[in-house]
Every structure is written in structure tokens, then in C-alpha cells.
Write a structure and sequence with these properties.
Number of helices: 7
Structural class: mainly alpha
Order of helices and strands: HHHHHHH
Number of strands: 0
Strand content: under 5%
Helix content: over 70%
Shape: globular
């Protein structure tokens, strides 16, 4: 960084510290703040289970739940990385559709339906095949408690992708803070329920709160998107 800085100063006679630059940086920080806040909320939603199960699933009947959930969570995150790569392609297309096509909202709805439909097929396959899929991946017996929950953990990642599509649809209309407002309630509610349910139900609560949190976030983002569509239709009318 410093070598590049020194080269730019010599090659282009640039002063890299300037008061106007600070003003622009503050503008960019203010502009990007909603996206940062949403990222913080979403990462809290998907990681709170790992944090709370280690702390609160301490009853004797929950022995090995932490290890079992950790391996299950690894598979969930692996699926998320794969779907995030697909999302990185989809999200840019959503912005292009907003500016170049008249069927923006039907296309986004169809895309969401395709994502959730694909997730349903994956859930069906894993729901009926986890008895041999999971032991193949994790043969150690202490991890087998997570096997029945594999389909739910992976299915939740598809709802996460669907939520991302809706979020980018809102961002395409510059509704950045609207995304944050509609995301706060599902995240806070899900986080709160972790502290209440995990001490009672252990890994079962962690898995279904992970899945339920994704579903609740999707529902709220979907409602926000419907509200955006209604506002656009009123303006065009």
C-alpha cells in the first residue's frame, strides 16, 4: 500500500490527503451504511446459533450437540457459499432488469419461485437420503445427531438466496433503509428466541431457529417488495 502510494505521488504529482476527499469519503460511508447494517443483521442471524449452542446447550441430554451442530453448520455454510456465487450473478441482473425491462417485478417473482422450488427439491432428496449421505460425510458417531436436520439446514440457505434477490430488488430502487427497517424485527426476534429455546431443546432449537429465521426474513423482505411494487404502480398510474 505504501509503495503504491509513493509511486502515485511521484508519477502523477498527486496529493493523496485532501479535505475534499474526506468529504467524499464521508458521503460514501453514509451512502453505504444501510448495506453495512443489513450485512451485520444477516450475519448475526446466521451465526447466533453457533454462539448460543455452545453456551446454553449444557444439559446432560444435549451431550455432543455442540459438535453435531458444528458439522451440520459447516455443510450449511458450504451450501451458502455455493448459492452466494449464483447470487453474485443474479443480483447484477436484477439491477439491469430494473433499468432495461418493463417486466421487472414478474421476473423477480419468477426467479424467487425457481429458487424456492429448487430448494424444495433439494430438501426432498436430503430428507429421504440423509441416512446414508450424512454418515458418508461424517462417519464419527458423535456427529450423527445432526443427520435428520441436514435437509432443513440446507433448505434455509435457499430462503437466504431468495431474500437476497428481494433485497437487491429493493436496492435497485434505492430503498436501502427500507431493507434495514424490514429486517430488524425478524433478526431480533430470532436472536431472542435462541436464548429462550436452546437451553430447553438444544440442537433441535438451533436448527429450526436457523431455518425459521431465514423464512421470517424472507417473508418480511417479500412484504417490503410488495409494498415497493404497489408504490411503483401508483406512481406510474
Amino acid at each position: 500500500t505504501f509503495l503504491t502510494w509513493w509511486y502515485l505521488k511521484r508519477a502523477y504529482s498527486l496529493s493523496l490527503f485532501h479535505s475534499k476527499w474526506y468529504q467524499n469519503i464521508l458521503k460514501w460511508i453514509h451512502e453505504g451504511m444501510p448495506n453495512w447494517v443489513f450485512g451485520l443483521l444477516y450475519n448475526t442471524l446466521i451465526t447466533i446459533g453457533m454462539l448460543t449452542i455452545r453456551t446454553f446447550a449444557v444439559a446432560p441430554q444435549f451431550s455432543n450437540h455442540e459438535d453435531a451442530y458444528a458439522n451440520l453448520y459447516k455443510l450449511g455454510m458450504a451450501a451458502q457459499f455455493i448459492l452466494a456465487f449464483a447470487g453474485s450473478v443474479i443480483y447484477t441482473r436484477i439491477v439491469i432488469w430494473k433499468h432495461q425491462r418493463n417486466d421487472f417485478f414478474p421476473r423477480v417473482f419468477l426467479l424467487i419461485l425457481m429458487v424456492i422450488g429448487s430448494g424444495s427439491l433439494v430438501w426432498t432428496f436430503l430428507h429421504w437420503s440423509y441416512q446414508w449421505v450424512y454418515p458418508t460425510l461424517f462417519p464419527n458417531p458423535i456427529f450423527q445427531a445432526g443427520a435428520p436436520f441436514l435437509s432443513w439446514m440446507i433448505f434455509g440457505r435457499f430462503f437466504g438466496l431468495a431474500s437476497g434477490i428481494l433485497v437487491w430488488g429493493l436496492l435497485a430502487y434505492q430503498k436501502d433503509w427500507m431493507v434495514v427497517r424490514w429486517s430488524v424485527l425478524p433478526v431480533l426476534l430470532t436472536v431472542l428466541l435462541h436464548f429462550i429455546l436452546i437451553p430447553k431443546y438444544g440442537m433441535t432449537a438451533a436448527v429450526f431457529l436457523n431455518f425459521g429465521g431465514e423464512c421470517l426474513l424472507f417473508i418480511c423482505c417479500f412484504c417490503a417488495f410488495l409494498r415497493l411494487r404497489s408504490g411503483v404502480k401508483r406512481k406510474s398510474a
